[in-house]
Amino acid sequence: MRNMLDSIANRVFLILLAGIIVATVTTTWLASNERRSTLRELRYQHVAERVEQVVLALDKLSPETRQVVLQTADNFGYEAAFVKTVGDTVDSSASPMVEILKSRLGEDRLVMVQRETDCASRRLEGIENHTLHASNPHPETCRIIYVSMQDKSLLRLRLHMPGEPPMLRNHGPGELPAGTPYILLFLVLIAVLAYAVAKMTARPIMQLASAATELGRDIDHSPLAEAGPTEIRQAAKAFNAMQARIRRQIQHRTHMLAAITHDLQTPLTRLRLRLEKVADKELQQKLVDDLAVMQGMVREGLDLARSMDSSEPMQKLDIDSLLDSVCADAADAGQQVQLQGSTRTSIDAQPNALRRCLINLLDNAVKYGHSADVSIALDTARPGHVLIRIRDHGPGIGKDQLEAVFEPFYRLEISRSRDTGGTGLGLTIARNIAENHAAVLSLHNHPEGGLEVLLSLGPAKIS
Description:
- The chain is an alpha+beta fold.
- It is 52% helix and 15% strand.
- The protein has eleven helices and twelve strands.
């Protein structure tokens, strides 16, 4: 459930759906109550009209004629008789039927209403009565109405009324209200609409996130399309402007660094030639060594500038072959390097840049750990990626320096002194190249000693 709520599209969908369901249920309940009230009012008016007709008709007749008329009342769906007293009935002065009858017949009349919940037994007997009750879960009801006549005689009417229609009934357990299929269909359609709205709302954010990811891999990636609603166009325009500024700043920095390091090579070469004329051999050797360090820094400065340039095109690359070639070159140069494992996969990469990254990592391991154990396998932590491990057998470094060593010109007090020839740019260049490939490069101290480099590349495609 938590993973589902991590998506903004799912959050918007659930909020919209919950709000619509609450609104639908509330309005349906209110409309149903209002409909029931209206229909009950119509039923009361219909009953009151029948009673009014009977009472007004009997008021105009003599007592003898009234009895003749009452004998035919059963033919019109009601029972009628004159009685002396009201009898055992509930106080129904607040009944809506009473108010309606008094408004029709006059406030001076005595009107009382009693409801019988099972009056069918008075009309049917035997098997027919039992069959009626078995087939009708809502038996018909009767209204017993007492109304005084103009001559003060008391008329008792029993009106047989059919059971309430489904929309007026109180539904029992397991019984669905009328119109439930239509409500469910309405909710399904609303859910589809809410999902479409949620996806449409989240799509620009996903596009912006994708563009930011591509920007990290390729600063020259094509800009976002400035289309859609006003807010989306403004966000795309701001993102494109940011990308353009970053591209210009990187280009200026790269060109400046490349120009400085390139222009330094000519005077350094002339200086080296002139050092050959120094008579003091000891002084000459010291000056040559210092000059070699400076030339090394210039070369790595050029490499650093190139590592920040992601213009080299991506190509499908056999990662096993590339790593085997790098390790073979290192072994031919006299370095102690051992390679294990294979993946038989290919990745999209910049061949020259990735080779430089691997060379720097191997040189770092051999230089400060004297040997390197290299292995390659599929990355279990990042499915579909390739994991390259490079472990040396040196002293390792402190935990607080595992990230600091990636900073330019950063040297450890012991292992990265000038005596070793380190410039502090090798790991910086390697991480820049890894980031251009959307790879993950990290360091940690191996439990059995030494420093281990983890480089996760991908996505990988099985050859």
